[in-house]
Amino acid sequence: MNKTQKGAWFNLVGTLLCFALGIYIVVEVFILRRLPEGFGRFWGLLAFWLVTGIAIIFIRKKQSPSEVDSDERDNFIKKRSVLASFVSVWILLFASSIIPRFIVGPDGSIPVWILPIINLGVFLIVMLVYSAAILVQYGWSSKGEKS
Amino acid sequence: MNRAQKIARFNLIVILIALTLSAIAVSVFYFVVDLPIRGAFGGFGFMGITGLMGLSPLLYKKERGKVSFDERDELINYRAVLVAYSVFWLVFTAACMIPWSIIGPSGSISVNVLPIMLFGIGITLMLVHSLVILVQYGRRGKDGEK
Asked: Which of A129, A131, A143, A139 is nearest to A4 (CA)?
């Protein structure tokens, strides 16, 4: 597994963790209307430290001392992934500007705190698309990916 | 001047004309006709001119038997997309955070603002994309840009 793939795995896991944490906070604070107690307050932070720590070791460790950071093929794969994420941004943005209109009607209004949530949501989904596009192009596995 | 430059130049001119006419119309409606600001914003109807950008690939068609897009053009286009993408995140984050900080977290906005926001972001991206393409080619048609 080369550096680009490791970075993509890190992004994917980090993004999914953000989603999990977001869902946990929404359920606990907004639906059950209670603040997390004990370990529940800290698991998100601990999980982030754990993922970051593992990622630092995992990404820094090279397959061989002569391994290059990226070659032309890696750049090409990254380029296509950026374009895929760019296209997904437009689809998401279009959806997020049209869907509220169908929910509240053309004369309705939405709370302004939804805007930063849309921003964060679009960012997380785009990161997910970017990472998934990289991994799909490499074939998800570490087979044959040596520099 | 090659096809990509011509399209970029056309888009840039269309956007600038639309923005200028909109600004003039809003100013006239507000200061001369004395319309309330909400009514004066009707001047932004001139932004509809930007729809002409859709005609640019038809106006500058690919010429048969000629290479219209080589590796260098592809690299220039990719860089322009990257710059536009970076600008997108700045504009999008600003568009989401500024109303939140102005109105306050408990306020609300009309649902019609969202498509306007989308349109504004799209126009900004097209402007940046066209500008970056022209800057990278050198703005002029010299040095073999045929």
From this structure: A131
**In-domain check, residue A50:** yes
Is any Cβ of chain B less than 8 angstroms from the Cβ of A38? no
Of the pLDDT bands very low, low, confident and very high (cuts 50, 70, 90), residue A145 is low
The full 3-state SS of B105-133, as one line of letters, equals CCCEEECCHHHHHHHHHHHHHHHHHHHHH
Question: Does the beta-carbon distance from A106 to B78 stay under 8 Å?
Answer: no
Which residues 45-104 of B are in CB contact (within 8 Å) with A?
78, 81-82, 85, 88-89, 92-93, 95-97, 99-100, 103-104
| pLDDT confidence tier of residue B12, bands split at 50, 70 and 90 | very high
How many other CB atoms are there within 10 angstroms of residue B73's CB atom? 19
Pick from A86, A100, A101: CB nearest B81: A86
Residue A100: list chain B partners with CB under 8 A: 111, 114
User: Rounded to a whole number, what is the distance in Å from the CA of A63 to chain B's nearest CA?
Assistant: 30
In a domain, B10, yes or no: yes
How many domains does chain A divide into?
A: 1
A-chain CB neighbours of B92 within 8 Å are 93, 119, 122
Alpha helices in A26-113 (DSSP H): 43-60, 72-104
Asked, for residue B122, whether it belongs to a domain, the answer is yes
* pLDDT one-digit tens code per residue, B78-129: 999 999 999 999 999 999 999 888 888 888 998 988 999 999 999 999 999 9
Neighbours of A134 (CB within 10 A): 24
Look at residue A147 and tell me if it is in a domain.
Answer: no
Q: What percent of chain B has pLDDT over 90?
A: 49
Return the percentage of chain A with pLDDT > 70, whole number.
95
